[in-house]
Specification:
- The structure is a homohexamer.
- Chain A is α+β, with helices and mostly antiparallel strands.
- The first copy, chain A, has one domain (about 5-65): Macrophage Migration Inhibitory Factor (2-Layer Sandwich).
- Chain A is built from 2 helices and 4 strands.
- Chain A has helices at about 15-35, 60-65; strands at about 5-10, 40-45, 50-55, 55-60.
- Chain A has a two-stranded parallel ribbon. Chain A has a two-stranded antiparallel ribbon with strand order 3-4.
- The N and C termini of chain A lie far apart (about 35 Å).
- Chains in contact: A-B, A-C, A-D, A-E, B-C, B-D, B-F, C-E, C-F, D-E, D-F, E-F.
- The interface of A and E includes residues 5, 17, 20, 28 and 54 of A.
- Strand 1 (about 5-10) of chain B pairs antiparallel with strand 1 (about 5-10) of chain C.
- Chains A, B, C, D, E, F: Belongs to the 4-oxalocrotonate tautomerase family.
């Protein structure tokens, strides 16, 4: 009985990327914890940039300053 | 001091259905746990079908295949 | 695909009360939203009294003052 | 490693108010718990008035009756 | 800025399994969404069997009946 | 109608620190959003170090390596 919630900033996540996350995490949980995928629910919630704060600043402000969340 | 969060796929839940859920759950908690309804908050969150994964698939894909969540 | 989270202060909720909440809410959702109970998951989380704040005070402090959450 | 989620009814919260909440809570956590702000994430989620229930009623109904959440 | 919450029944998940979930999901998000792992937080919450309801029954009751969540 | 959830690693947060967080956040929300404190609920959830992942590693492992979350 796993339930997974993914919160991520709304910055152009595509339908295909969401499907990759859902398939990948369901598969990982099934493999690592031996859980039936029919009992695994995953919810993705995209958050507006004004609504996510990091280090005391809105992400919308960080992005205006050119600070991204991409891998280095 | 109960707080309840209901997450459900966004598939045409009406205002009246939401009111039924809110009234019914508040009443149930009040009856079973003897809690003051003035301390009971309930939040309903509708989730887009692309954002809910079940059994490794997006619900939007399941619905396209004709698989519903209705009672049998 | 409903998922429900119930957060309530840890004040002696019994196994039977939890079962009543789970059965009652699952039944309500099934009736109001026509959802298959096999797709309905409910999670109860009990919160220590020091960890729940209401009106700016810990519930543990409110209880020491004789303020309860019971129905009037 | 703190993560904070703020759920509030959608009633005209401005970008500036969100920034005040994010800065204020990050600062409070940093001061009280001695946490690095670079490890503190805050998410604000606004909830439609039909989707928040209080005392068994939708907040949208309460507002129609003239009942607000403002300080007395 | 992703945050992930995993809720799973408390049934002997080991420290190694948790590490596999954390490493696997962080890697998946980094690959699929191109997110810096230093901005990815994952929280695992184990839920007692009396506190998880499925299909209207406590999981503790389902387990007593021999119904498991294992892959078929 | 605000509800706030604070998740933080379980590393010796005291009852007094929790009270400071509850009072401070309730006051901040009351000031910034003009919300009645009697409608503001705050829940603190401490997470075991094995159960919080950051940058792909359990916090328990990071602490063993001498990496803390303290302000620099």
């Amino acid at each position: 009985m796993p339930y997974v919630k993914i919160e991520v900033t709304r910055e152009g996540v595509t339908r295909e990327q969401k499907q990759e996350l859902i398939a990948g995490i369901t598969n990982l949980i099934s493999t690592v914890l031996d859980k039936d995928p029919n009992l695994t629910h995953i919810v993705i919630q995209e958050i507006e940039l004004d609504d996510w704060g990091f280090a005391g600043e809105q992400v919308s402000v960080l992005r205006e300053k050119g600070i991204t969340a991409q891998r280095k």
